[in-house]
Design a protein that fits this description.
alpha+beta, 2 domains, Immunoglobulin-like, elongated, single chain, disordered N terminus, binds heme C, 4 helices, three-stranded mixed beta sheet, about 15% helix, four-stranded antiparallel beta sheet
Length: about 220
């Protein structure tokens, strides 16, 4: 039996023995749980040629502790599935960011995958979910970078971490590793600074929490 429906959250493992599709099981534990998504869905998802919307997906439950390992299964996979991903999706099931990708071989029958200590506050996620979506339009994607700040993928980390802010109203670093409260990046997004007006740029507080968690964990480039 092929599963073609949208089955986030409550897909019961298929026990039908005449089932033809492959079965994938994934064991994973997540780190940086403060950055657990609320307005988005963290899923195990199978993608075909369309890299934007998965063929099937199933949502991870929020664990209590970083050491909690959970196992999710996708069974009855459609034949056109090409990759299995730990994927962050919008509620409309569009891919925002992929934490992990496994490419399926034709020979793969039932596959058991494992990913340990996946950080939810990875820089790749921040670049795609925050900077690319809400910042680069003004900060570097076109022919200008407001405030001389480039937040494009090739430049953003070096422009932020340990870099002194230009703004006359602060002597903070843009990002001070391990110290979100000393980082101008957080201040500009949270406080209504005169002439800066960045408090409405992000649609959800959890994206600021994601940035704070990344800074608290050392502001690494991975
Ligand atoms: C609509 C355009 C626009 C968008 C979108 C925007 N910014 Fe800005 N940003 C500006 C402008 C303009 C300045 C410079 C203000 C000035 O220098 O007077 C600025 C300045 C900044 C600064 C201060 C840089 C410094 O060293 O002084 C930071 C940090 C910053 N933006 C971060 C962000 C982040 C993060 C996002 C996305 C969440 C974002 N901005 C989205 C227009 C924008």
């Amino acid at each position: 039996m092929l599963t073609t429906s949208c089955d986030d959250g409550d897909l019961k493992p298929q026990s039908n023995s005449s089932e033809t599709g492959r079965r994938i099981s994934m064991q994973v534990n997540f780190n940086a749980l403060k950055a657990w998504p609320q307005n988005y869905m963290l899923t195990l998802a199978a993608f075909g040629a369309d890299q934007e919307t998965p063929l099937v997906s199933k949502q991870f439950a929020q664990p209590e502790k970083e050491s909690d390992i959970q196992t999710l299964e996708l069974s009855g996979l459609p034949d056109d599935a090409q990759t299995i991903q730990i994927a962050l999706l919008t509620k409309g099931r569009k891919l925002i960011y992929s934490f992990y990708t496994h490419t399926l071989d034709d020979g793969d029958e039932d596959v058991m995958l494992r990913a340990e200590n996946l950080s939810l506050a990875s820089y790749g996620r921040i670049q795609q979910q925050v900077f690319n979506q809400y910042c680069t339009a003004c900060h570097g994607a076109g022919d200008r970078a407001a405030g001389s700040l480039y937040l494009t993928a090739d430049k953003s980390h070096a422009m932020l971490v340990n870099a002194t802010a230009h703004a006359a109203i602060t002597n903070k670093k843009r990002v001070e590793p391990a110290m979100p409260s000393q980082s101008f990046l957080i201040e500009i997004l949270e406080e209504d600074l005169l002439n800066y007006n960045h408090t409405d740029v992000l649609p959800h507080d959890e994206l600021v929490t994601l940035l704070k968690t990344w800074i608290s964990n050392g502001a690494n480039n991975d």
